């Protein structure tokens, strides 16, 4: 995801633009924006339609908020997230089409942007034409939930993803009926969804078909998160343990994390970044649920988003990147600590033997 270095300048870890919110919804852009910053972005621009732009601006001094739709293209952004709280009114559809016309790279579509895609695909004049071409050209990433994936699939193929639905329902039931606890439940679930597992093919076949049809990466949220690409056999299924509370806004948090990681990791494959974002979201929500229990709401999760790069492996990697005197000293100190720990372990074992 890109380690912090003292030679970096402001904005080099990303300046995402979030086109989110509407006169009806103000919470989604706030949750997505806060998550974006917590995931490491240097800036967070928000374009919010209507009077709610003032509400969003007051939520954090770290936001740069605009409600001027006419001049949004003047913003010096690195990448775009569109959709959280956007609604599907005509003004939002026009804004979506205007965004697509700018030929963005690795465009992230979430929530209402996915519903707008469904709405446009249902119109005969664009069903197999310019919209899909634009989605492909933008190397788009879509993050549908269970219902949005079902709607997208039905719009594309006039049928429903029945194998995927059945597999996901059975996985959910296996967790619900597991009396040994959530931890052991997810441990038992992982062999079922890995390559060659009982539900692997059922989980990926229909998502891969839709990804190839649209020419986009899909991150489908559910009991497990399924991540597929249109032009790769590489498939990721994230079975990291999350938590059972399904409060509104958790999808906005994932979208905010993902747009930040995309901004700071231009050379990383989209599937890898999607997997990282899904795992981070699940870990943060699990930590929040552990503290708040059933009282947890989406805003509680934000403070548990951790992108800590101060672990020992990162320190060593940074030292190797700069093999000067300081790098040599850090590596030497790490080796000395490792030798001391090994010696202490041996001494302790010998003492026990005596």
TrEMBL record:
EC number: 4.2.1.93
MF-aspect GO terms: ATP binding; ATP-dependent NAD(P)H-hydrate dehydratase activity; kinase activity
Bilayer-crossing regions: 320-344
Needed co-factor(s): Mg(2+)
Example of a GO biological process term: metabolite repair
Recorded superkingdom: Eukaryota
Binding annotation for ATP: 221-225, 242-251
Domain YjeF C-terminal: 1-312
Pfam family, one: Carb_kinase
Keyword field: ATP-binding, Kinase, Lyase, Membrane, NAD, NADP, Nucleotide-binding, Phosphoprotein, Transferase, Transmembrane, Transmembrane helix
Keyword field contains Electron transport: no
Reactions the enzyme catalyzes: (6S)-NADHX + ATP = ADP + phosphate + NADH + H(+); (6S)-NADPHX + ATP = ADP + phosphate + NADPH + H(+)
Binding-site positions, (6S)-NADPHX: 85, 145-151, 252
PROSITE patterns the record matches: YJEF_C_3
EC class: lyase
Family named by the database record: Belongs to the NnrD/CARKD family.
Chain's role: Catalyzes the dehydration of the S-form of NAD(P)HX at the expense of ATP, which is converted to ADP. Together with NAD(P)HX epimerase, which catalyzes the epimerization of the S- and R-forms, the enzyme allows the repair of both epimers of NAD(P)HX, a damaged form of NAD(P)H that is a result of enzymatic or heat-dependent hydration.
Name of the protein in its database record: ATP-dependent (S)-NAD(P)H-hydrate dehydratase
Lineage: Eukaryota, Metamonada, Diplomonadida, Hexamitidae, Giardiinae
């Amino acid at each position: 995801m890109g380690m912090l270095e003292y030679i970096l300048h402001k904005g080099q870890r990303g300046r995402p633009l979030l086109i989110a919110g509407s006169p009806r919804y103000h919470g989604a852009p706030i949750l997505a924006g806060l998550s974006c910053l917590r995931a490491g972005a240097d800036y967070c621009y928000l374009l919010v339609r209507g009077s709610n732009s003032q509400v969003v601006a007051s939520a954090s001094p770290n936001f740069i908020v605009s409600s001027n739709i006419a001049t949004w293209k003047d913003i010096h952004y690195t990448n775009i997230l569109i959709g959280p709280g956007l609604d599907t009114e005509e003004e939002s559809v026009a804004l979506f089409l205007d965004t697509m016309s700018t030929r963005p790279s690795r465009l992230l579509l979430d929530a209402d942007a996915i519903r707008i895609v469904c709405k446009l695909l249902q119109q005969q004049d664009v069903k197999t034409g310019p919209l899909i071409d634009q989605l492909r050209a933008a190397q788009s990433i879509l993050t549908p939930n269970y219902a949005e994936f079902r709607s997208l699939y039905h719009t594309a193929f006039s049928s429903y993803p029945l194998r995927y639905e059945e597999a996901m329902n059975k996985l959910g039931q296996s967790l619900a009926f597991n009396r040994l606890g959530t931890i052991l439940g997810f441990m038992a679930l992982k062999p079922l969804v890995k390559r060659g597992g009982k539900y692997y093919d059922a989980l990926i076949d229909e998502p891969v078909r839709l990804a190839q049809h649209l020419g986009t990466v899909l991150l489908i949220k559910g009991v497990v998160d399924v991540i597929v690409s249109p032009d790769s056999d590489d498939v990721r299924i994230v079975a990291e343990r999350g938590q059972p509370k399904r409060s509104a806004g958790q999808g906005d948090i994932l979208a905010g994390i993902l747009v930040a990681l995309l901004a700071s990791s231009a050379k990383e494959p989209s599937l890898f970044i999607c997997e990282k974002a899904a795992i981070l979201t699940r870990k943060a929500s699990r930590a929040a649920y552990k503290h708040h229990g059933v009282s947890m709401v989406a805003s509680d999760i934000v403070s548990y988003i951790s992108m800590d790069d101060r672990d020992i492996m990162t320190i060593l990697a940074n030292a190797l990147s700069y093999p000067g005197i300081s790098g040599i000293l850090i590596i030497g100190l790490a080796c000395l600590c490792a030798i001391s720990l090994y010696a202490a372990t041996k001494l302790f074992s010998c003492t026990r033997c005596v």
